[in-house]
Amino acid sequence: MSLDNNLKNDILHKVEEYYYEYHNKNEYSKGDKIPFAGRVYDKKELVNLVDASLDFWLTAGKYADEFESKFAKFMEVNYCILVNSGSSANLIAMTTLTSPKLGNRRLRKGDEVITIAAGFPTTVNPIIQNGLIPVFVDVELGTYNIKVDELEDALSEKTRAIIIAHTLGNPFNVNAVMKFAQENDLYVIEDCCDAVGSKYDNKMVGSFGHLSTVSFYPAHHMTMGEGGAVLTNNTKLMKIATSFRDWGRDCYCKPGKDNTCGNRFRGQYGRLPQGYDHKYVYSHIGYNLKLTDMQAAIGIAQLEKLPHFIKKRKDNYRKLKDILASYDKYLMLPRKTIDSEPSWFGFPISLKENIPFTRREIINHLEDNNIMTRLLFAGNITKQPAYENTDYRVVGNLSNTDYIMNNTFFIGVYPGIDDSRLEYISEVFEEFFNIY
């Protein structure tokens, strides 16, 4: 073993010691704050992070390559394209569909994209950012997913695509959505940022649409700190998405690589001189949305834990449903969609009508007792200030979306919630309902 490797191993051993001294602290005292989400990690993440930093390869490298290969296999798709956030993943996925390389099937400004109003803004924003028109459809109460019987009403001669999320990890009705898309020649983007590991009809969500997206933000199923991915089974879409991620360049060489295609100085592109360096040919108006190898190194360690994370989320969901079942006079508890196996991001709760307390009162009680809550994202996004002057179309009256905006919240199921924390959550809910 070389002196350099000995020194590196000494450093990484010290990193392990540092983890046990400063990070390995998960003691719980009754009443401590219980987040709705959070990172769960051990020494492996720190060791990988430092290992990557010692190589000082500051952009995507060996860890990114390894992660893209392993995560694609886990998600049952052919290709994984790492980006710097889940929001960027949605932007890249939607922008990919505007590429001239898609010919007559490309999306153009003014085309319509079906989505839902009861979701997270960055599912909708790429529609607007590409000059497209969002068409908002209502959702079901209980599953919080798209009302598929409204898809026909949403359809117009301008409709070209669908982008929707599997809400809080609960898969939408994939069969109905994909059938509608196929019948009408529409692209489908699955937003899986809250649904890694969820299955529909025994297949991973993210493997059905033309493109799908994932987030690795600390709140999600696994984390790289920041980070995200675009997934696809289609080689052409993979190459286009990679181009948009990498400044819009036509070349697909990895960082630090040259002439992968063997024709670096031989092609004719646009009105450029014959043989112009392919590494500086741009076929799209793109971005630089790559991540670093240090982030991917964390992801490799997290990916090893992902099956456990998914199981723990499912277990916590089941236990919370048992805890709250006795309050169904007041609470509408979540239900999974038919033919699905959700990997839950959170536990959504809606208040029933004509009950003697408000959402603010129950949320305040939970928060005052250090149980963190969140609303279901933007509520009705058409009522958010950012969208007041945005062009969009609404199908129906979005009555369920408005109900969610006023009556729904969620609490956590993330793997850091253990039985002692669940017991405390149960006590806090019982204390609240003893009043009634």
What does this structure look like?
The chain has helices spanning 3-22, 43-55, 62-74, 86-96, 121-129, 151-154, 174-183, 235-245, 293-324, 359-368, 399-407, 419-433, and strands at residues 79-83, 112-116, 133-137, 159-165, 187-191, 199-200, 203-204, 211-215, 228-232, 331-332, 340-341, 346-351, 374-375, 393-394, 408-412. The protein is of the alpha/beta class. It has one domain (1-248, 283-436): Type I PLP-dependent aspartate aminotransferase-like (Major domain) (Aspartate Aminotransferase, domain 2, 3-Layer(aba) Sandwich), CATH 3.40.640. An 8-stranded mixed sheet has the order 1-9-8-5-4-2-3-14, with helices on both faces. The longest helix has 32 residues, at 293-324. The protein is flat. The model has no long low-confidence stretch (mean pLDDT 96).
Write the layout of secondary structure elements.
Elements: H1 3-22, H2 43-55, H3 62-74, E1 79-83, H4 86-96, E2 112-116, H5 121-129, E3 133-137, H6 151-154, E4 159-165, H7 174-183, E5 187-191, E6 199-200, E7 203-204, E8 211-215, E9 228-232, H8 235-245, H9 293-324, E10 331-332, E11 340-341, E12 346-351, H10 359-368, E13 374-375, E14 393-394, H11 399-407, E15 408-412, H12 419-433
Parallel strand pairs: 2-3, 2-4, 3-14, 4-5, 5-8
Antiparallel strand pairs: 1-9, 6-7, 6-11, 8-9, 10-12, 12-15, 13-15
Helix pairs in contact: 1-2, 2-9, 3-9, 4-5, 4-8
